[in-house]
Amino acid sequence: MRKNFKVAVILAGCGARDGSEIQESTLALYALSKEGFETECFAPDIEVREVINHIDGTPMNQKRDVLIEAARIVRGKIAPLDTLDVDKFDALLFPGGSGSAKNIFTMMIDGLDFEVLPEVSRVIRAFNAASKPICGMCIAPVMLAKVLSDKKITITLGPQSDLCGQISEKFGVTVEVCPRDKATVDCVNKVVTTPCYMYPDSTIAQIGDGAIEMVRRLKTMLTE
C-alpha cells in the first residue's frame, strides 16, 4: 500500500453516552495506524446535546462543546468539520456511540425519523460521489443508511434484531448479520461496517478485532 493513503475520522464528542464511543474511536485509530494509514480527525463545532454521567447514566446540568470534547480522544489534534477537504482524503470513518446518535444524527432522540447534521450529510455524500470508501462502526451505519438511501447500500448492525428489519424497510438498505469481530463489505458502494457494541456484551478485544478487520477490508478496497 502506498504510504500516503489518508482517512478522515469524524468524532462526535467524547464518551459512549454523549459523544463518540472512546474504545471504538481509539481502536479504529490504532487499526488505521497499524495498517499504514495516515489520519486526521474532525468534529462539528456545536454544543453537546446532553451531557451524561457515565457512572449512573443520568443527565448532568452542564454545557460542553462537541469539538472540544472530541479533542480529548486525539490529544488535541482535531479540526472543525467544516474545514474537511474531501479531495485531500481517500476514505472516511465514523466510530459509533449512542452519543453520536444524539450529536451528529438524532436517532436516540427522534427514532427512525432522525435528522443528520447537514455538514455530516454533506461530507458523506461528497465521499460517496467521489467513489471514496466510507467506514461505519456500531450505530453509525444507520446514519449512512439514511444519507445514502438512494444507493441501496449494504451494512451490518451486528446480530439479527427488529431494528435490522426496520432500517431495511425504511431506508431500502440490506442489513447483514455480522460477527462482532468481523466486517460487512459493500464493494459496489464502497461501504465497510463493523458491529462493535451493537452486541452489548462485546469485549474490548472483539471491538479491536472488528476494527482491524474493517481497516484491512478498507485497505483491500483501496488497493485492488
Describe the fold and architecture:
Helix content is 34%, strand content 16%. The protein contains eight helices and nine strands. α1 packs across α8. The protein is α/β, with parallel strands linked by helices and 224 residues long. The radius of gyration is 16 Å and the shape is globular. The mean pLDDT is 97. α1 links the parallel β1 and β2.
Task: Give me the secondary-structure topology.
Layout: E1 6-10, H1 22-34, E2 38-43, H2 66-70, E3 78-80, E4 91-94, H3 100-103, H4 107-110, H5 118-129, E5 134-137, H6 140-147, E6 154-156, H7 162-171, E7 174-176, E8 184-186, E9 191-194, H8 204-223
Parallel strand pairs: 1-2, 1-4, 2-3, 4-5, 5-9, 6-7
Antiparallel strand pairs: 8-9
Which regions are unreliable across 5 or more consecutive residues at pLDDT < 50? none
Number of helical regions = 8
Helix content: 25-40%
N-to-C terminal Cα separation, in Å?
10 Å
Structural class assignment: alpha/beta
Strand order of the largest sheet: 3-2-1-4-5-9-8
In short:
It contains eight helices and nine strands. It is an alpha/beta fold and 224 residues long.
Structural key phrases:
224 residues, seven-stranded mixed beta sheet, two-stranded parallel ribbon, 8 helices
